[in-house]
C-alpha cells in the first residue's frame, strides 16, 4: 500500500495510539513515526517495541514537520495538546483523534487549525482494560467498528487518507454525523459503564446479616461489574463532554427500571416476563 503520510506524530502512545502505530509501520503507510507522551518509561517501551522511530516529551519537537497528528490523549487534554503543537505541524497537516466523544472534539479543535489544515475526528470502537504501550496490539481493531465523523474542516482527501489508514487495521470503517455518534454511543457504550459502576458502588459496603453481599455473587456479578474497573481519567472526560446525550440515555434506562419496580411492587409476573423477554431479545441480537 502506498505511503499516506510522510510523518505521523502520535500524542499518547498507549493502547490505541500504539496499536495504530504498529499497523501504520507494518503496512508502510507512514514514513516516520514520532511519539509524544508524559512519561519517558512508556515512550521507551514504544521505541523498544518498534512502534515509533523517535520520541519527545516536548510538544513542539514532537510535532515538528508532521503532516499527520493523532491525538490519543484524554479528551479534555486534546485542545491544550493541539494548541502546543499546531504551529509546528506541516502547513497542510491532517489532525485526527481517537476519542469516544465526537461533537466536542469537532467544536473545540477546528477553530485551532491553520487555514490549510484538516480535522478528521475518529472513534475506534475497540479497547481493553489494560493501558500503555506495553498493551498495544496490531490486531486490536480487526473486525471492530471505526467511526469517522466529518466536520466543516474535513476535506475529502483528508477523509480518504484517514479511512485508508484505519481500513488497514482490519476494522469496519464508516462515516457518521458527530452528534448522531454521540447519541448512539451514549446509549450503547457510555450507559453500560454508568450502570456497571453504579451497581458496583451500591454493593461496595452492602452487608446482610453481617456478611458482605458481593462475596456471594458468581459470574453474573463479575461480568456485570467488569466495566467498573475502567480508568476514571477516560470516563471523567466522557461524562463532561457528552453530558446531554448521557442525560437522555440515563432517562431511557430509568424509565425501564421503573417498569421493573412497578411490576415487582404489583407482583405482576406476566408483565415482568414480557419485560424480561424484551431484554433477552435484545441480547440475542448482539451475539
Topology summary:
Blueprint: E1 5-11, H1 15-27, E2 30-36, H2 40-48, E3 54-56, H3 59-63, E4 68-71, H4 75-85, E5 94-97, H5 103-109, E6 118-124, E7 145-150, H6 156-167, E8 172-175, H7 178-203, E9 207-208, E10 211-212, H8 219-224, H9 232-241, H10 243-266, H11 269-285
Parallel strand pairs: 1-2, 1-4, 2-3, 4-5, 5-6, 7-8
Antiparallel strand pairs: 6-7, 9-10
Describe the structure.
There is one protein chain. This protein has helices spanning 15-27, 40-48, 59-63, 75-85, 103-109, 156-167, 178-203, 219-224, 232-241, 243-266, 269-285, and strands at residues 5-11, 30-36, 54-56, 68-71, 94-97, 118-124, 145-150, 172-175, 207-208, 211-212. It has two domains: 5-176, 3-Layer(aba) Sandwich (Rossmann fold), CATH 3.40.50.720; 180-285, 6-phosphogluconate dehydrogenase C-terminal fold (Orthogonal Bundle), CATH 1.10.3660. The chain has eleven helices and ten strands. With 287 residues, the chain is an alpha/beta fold. It has an eight-stranded mixed β-sheet with strand order 3-2-1-4-5-6-7-8, sandwiched between helices. Strands 9-10 form a two-stranded antiparallel sheet. It is elongated and about 70 Å long. The two termini are 34 Å apart. The mean pLDDT is 96. α10 runs antiparallel to α11.
Task: Name a few traits of the molecule.
287 residues, alpha/beta, 2 domains, 10 strands, two-stranded antiparallel ribbon, 6-phosphogluconate dehydrogenase C-terminal fold, Rossmann fold, eight-stranded mixed beta sheet
Shape: elongated
Q: Termini distance?
A: 34 Å
List the domain count as a whole number.
2
Roughly what percent helix?
A: 40-55%
**β-strand amount:** 15-25%
Order of helices and strands: EHEHEHEHEHEEHEHEEHHHH
Low-confidence stretches: none
- List the total number of helices: 11
CATH top level class name of the largest domain: Alpha Beta
The main sheet orders its strands as 3-2-1-4-5-6-7-8
C-alpha Rg (nearest Å): 21 Å
Task: Kindly report the CATH topology of the largest domain.
Answer: Rossmann fold
CATH superfamily of the largest domain: NAD(P)-binding Rossmann-like Domain
CATH architecture of the largest domain: 3-Layer(aba) Sandwich
Would you report the number of β strands? 10
Amino acid at each position: 500500500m502506498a505511503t499516506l503520510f510522510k510523518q505521523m506524530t502520535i500524542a499518547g502512545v498507549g493502547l490505541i495510539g500504539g496499536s495504530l502505530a504498529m499497523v501504520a509501520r507494518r503496512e508502510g503507510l507512514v514514513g516516520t513515526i514520532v511519539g509524544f507522551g508524559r512519561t519517558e518509561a512508556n515512550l521507551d517501551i514504544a521505541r523498544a517495541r518498534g512502534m515509533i522511530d523517535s520520541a519527545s516529551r516536548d510538544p513542539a519537537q514532537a510535532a515538528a514537520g508532521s503532516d499527520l497528528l493523532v491525538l490519543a490523549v484524554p479528551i479534555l487534554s486534546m485542545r491544550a495538546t493541539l494548541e502546543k503543537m499546531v504551529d509546528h505541524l506541516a502547513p497542510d497537516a491532517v489532525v485526527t483523534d481517537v476519542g469516544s466523544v465526537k461533537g466536542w472534539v469537532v467544536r473545540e479543535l477546528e477553530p485551532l487549525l491553520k487555514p490549510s489544515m484538516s480535522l478528521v475526528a475518529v472513534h475506534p470502537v475497540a479497547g481493553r482494560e489494560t493501558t500503555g504501550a506495553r498493551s498495544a496490539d496490531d490486531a486490536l481493531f480487526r473486525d471492530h467498528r471505526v467511526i469517522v465523523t466529518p466536520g466543516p474542516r474535513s476535506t475529502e482527501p483528508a477523509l480518504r487518507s484517514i479511512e485508508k489508514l484505519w481500513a488497514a487495521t482490519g476494522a469496519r470503517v464508516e462515516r457518521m454525523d458527530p452528534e448522531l455518534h454521540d447519541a448512539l454511543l451514549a446509549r450503547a457504550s457510555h450507559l453500560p459503564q454508568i450502570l456497571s459502576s453504579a451497581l458496583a458502588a451500591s454493593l461496595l459496603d452492602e452487608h446482610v446479616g453481617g456478611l458482605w453481599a458481593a462475596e456471594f455473587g458468581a459470574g453474573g456479578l463479575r461480568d456485570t461489574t467488569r466495566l467498573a474497573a475502567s480508568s476514571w481519567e477516560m470516563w471523567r472526560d466522557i461524562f463532561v463532554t457528552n453530558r446531554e446525550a448521557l442525560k437522555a440515555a440515563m432517562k431511557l434506562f430509568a424509565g425501564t427500571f421503573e417498569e421493573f419496580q412497578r411490576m415487582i411492587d404489583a407482583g405482576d409476573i406476566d408483565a415482568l416476563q414480557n419485560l424480561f423477554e424484551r431484554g433477552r431479545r435484545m441480547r440475542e441480537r448482539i451475539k
